[in-house]
Amino acid sequence: MLTRRAALMGAASFAALPAMTRAASAEEIMDTSMVEPVDLSNLKRIKRKLVRPPEVHAHEQVAPGAPRIVEFEMQIVEKEVEVDNGAYLQAMTFNGSIPGPLMVVHEGDYVELTLFNSPENMMQHNIDFHAATGALGGGSLTLVNPGEKATLRFKATRPGTFVYHCAPGGPMIPWHVVSGMAGAIMVLPRDGLKDHEGKPVKYDRVFYIGENDFYVPKDENGSYKRFADVGESYPDTLEVMNGLIPSHVVFNGKVGALTGDNALQAAQGEKVLFVHSQANRDTRPHLIGGHGDLVWERGKFNNLPERDLETWFIAGGSAGAALYKFLQPGVYAYVNHNLIEAVNLGATAHVVVEGDWNNDLMEQVQAPVEYNATHEGRTALP
Ligand SMILES: [Cu+2]
């Protein structure tokens, strides 16, 4: 299945690129051009413009009719990103954001993605959809050099939230992923989500949270190193990666991307669906002050959701979904409940909820006040 282009890329084109891009081998490129094209001319087509996470493009929760071909475009952008004050990452991104945008379709739809590798980029890239079947998730049919584009179509046969990521071969795979090249797709059941009893359930909004572990190298003085381009960053970054201790664990590309002025907003009574992906490493989301009312912990909607969870588990290389109806106003922290990663390394988001406080759910019976230690408090001890 070696194509002429693949053979050429194995020799001439690769030679022009930095050494670290040569890892993609010929067997990772498939030629399916001899296979009769499938006739989908009876299907409607719809274009969806992808948006920057945590937002999600407009979509219906219940499919409006027969399966469609849903067209997306994505551009790969290599760029420097400040992931924390003074810490710079030579990032590789789907559509300029970390994570890449959340795509939404329905079970039975066809996802048709055109992937552009900008001529300004240095690296080969592709896309592996965990939601797709065959050809390394589409990776073998989408490997594009800078200045090339490719279009992949796959049938979304399994409902759920799934990771996609770049997987251009060999050691390029983990490097591209921890440099930001991962996102998620949500394949909704045609009749929408269902609760633990199989009854229809709707969400009022979706927040897409993509978690990343970054491995930013430090110099001999302990300061973060800054590099001229993505290629120059590779050797030092690889060394930190192979130590398996991230310098940063963040939501949506940087420390503070979803806190303070960037906090997520919701209203009391709203049902919010949190879609959370981690392409490389396990994580355990927890909503401080709230719960997961219905949690598809492994993200797959053919399975009944768990109820009332306090913390849930997202296996590295997967995306999960949790639905919560906000009952109290205030600031909630949505964290990775490895609290070192949440607080010291960055994996925290805030949700600011407007509404009226409910003293039945929680009341401050006595505000903090000084007490007489000689008379009070002793009865608490065993
Ligand atoms: Cu890539």
From TrEMBL:
Its main location: periplasm. GO terms for molecular function: copper ion binding; nitrite reductase (NO-forming) activity. Residues 78-190, 207-356 form the Plastocyanin-like domain. Its cofactor is FAD; Cu(2+); Cu(+). One of its GO terms (biological process) is denitrification pathway. It holds the Pfam family Cu-oxidase_3. Binds 1 Cu(+) ion. It is found in: Periplasm. Residues 1-26 form the signal peptide. It is an enzyme of class 1 (oxidoreductase). One of its GO terms (cellular component) is periplasmic space. Keywords: Copper, FAD, Flavoprotein, Metal-binding, Nitrate assimilation, Oxidoreductase, Periplasm, Plasmid, Repeat, Signal. Its EC number is 1.7.2.1. Homotrimer. Belongs to the multicopper oxidase family. This is Copper-containing nitrite reductase. It comes from Pseudosulfitobacter pseudonitzschiae.
